[in-house]
Amino acid sequence: MKILLHFLLAMGLAIDAAAAIAACSPIPGADQVWSKASVHWVFVGELHGSNETPAAFGDLVCDVLARGKRVTVALERPTSEQAALDGILTAKDLSAAKTVLLQQPKWKDGMDGRASEAMLHLFISMRELRKSYPDLAIVAFDAPYTGTADGARDGAMGRFLLAVGKTKPKDLILILVGNAHAMHAPEFGYDPAAMYLPSKEILSLEVTDRGGESWYDSDDGCGPTKGGVEDKGATKGRGIFLDPKLAPYGKVDGVLSLGVALTSSAPAAGEPTPLPDCRTKFLSKHRPGTHHR
User: Alpha carbon 285 to chain centroid distance?
Assistant: First the structure.
C-alpha cells in the first residue's frame, strides 16, 4: 500500500510539473547554459521596466527546473523585502500577500521599472512553479551599504550574492539585475556586482531587443521611454547566443535576445501621491503638444 501511495504521489507531482512547464515557453539555446557544470551564478542583465524581460526570465527558471536542477532566483530588490517576497511564494492568501508587498517603500514609490506590474507577475509565476518545485526560492539581494563611493552598492550586492552561493551550494542561482551590474569588467570606473563572484563560476547574459519602449528612470525623468538595448548587427530571433562580441555594451558572455520590441510595464502599485520629482519632470516633457526629445 505504501508503495502504491508513493507511486501515486510521484505521478501527481509529475503531472503538476508538466502543467507548470506547459505554461512556459522554452528559450532556444538555454541548454548551452545549463550544461556548464562549473557555473553557479547566471546573470541576466536587463534594461528595467519592460514586460518582455521578466517573462523571458520566468521561462528560463521554468526551463532549468524542468531539467531537474535546484534553483534559487535572486532579484534586484531590497533585502528588507525578503519577508514580503516569501509571502508571495508561500502565503495561503495571495491577495493579502500582494497588499503587503505593494506597501513596501520601494514598491509604493518605485519609479525605476524594478517595481513593475511585469515584475509582480513574475513573482506570482514563481509561486505557481513552487507548487511543483517546493525547493524553489526567491532571494532579494540589493543589500544595505555604507559610504557614498562609486560602486559601494555593487560591492554590497556582489558580497550578498557570494554569501547566497555559499548557503546554496547545490543550487543554480539565476539573477535578474540591471545590465550594468552583470558585467565582467568595470564599465563606469568601479567593479560591478558580478566581479565579486568567482569568475569561473559565473555566466552573464545581456538582454537585447528590437527597440520599443520601457518604463525606467533616466535623465529625462521616469516613465515609458522609447529605446532599448537593440541587437548588435543583424536582428536575432528569441534565444541565447554565447558570443561576447554580440553584446552591445560591456563585457559579458553572450546575449539573451528577446527577438521582439519592448513594451513598457507601469508600476504595480500605481503612481504615488505626491508624484516624485522624476515623474513630474517626465510628464512636463511628454504631455500632448510638448516637444519630445
Answer: 29
In a domain, 43, yes or no: yes
Pairwise CA distance, residues 81 & 106, whole Å: 9
Q: What are phi and psi of 67, to 5 degrees?
A: -90, 10
Q: What are phi and psi of 201, to 5 degrees?
A: -110, 10
Give the CATH number for residue 59: 3.40.50
Please state the domain count of the chain: 1
CA 61 – CA 23 distance, rounded (Å): 12
Do β-strands 254-257 and 202-208 pair in parallel, antiparallel, or remain unpaired? parallel
Distance CA 126, CA 55 (A): 11
What percent of the chain has pLDDT above 70? 90
SS3 264: strand
113-133 per-position pLDDT tens digit: 999 999 999 999 999 999 999
pTM: 0.90
- Helix, strand, or coil here: 242? coil
pLDDT in tens, 35-71: 999 999 999 999 999 999 999 999 999 999 999 999 9
Rounded CA-CA distance 114/112 in Å is 6
Q: Which helix (H) or strand (E) holds 152?
A: helix 152-167
**291 domain-assigned:** no
Domain extent at residue 81: 30-286
- Distance set, CA 254 to CA 161, 207, 222, 250, 271 (Å): 21, 9, 29, 11, 35
Residue 96 or 292, more confident = 96
Residue with cell string 550586492 = 157
User: In angstroms, rounded to a whole number, what is the distance separating the alpha carbons of residues 257 and 235?
Assistant: 9
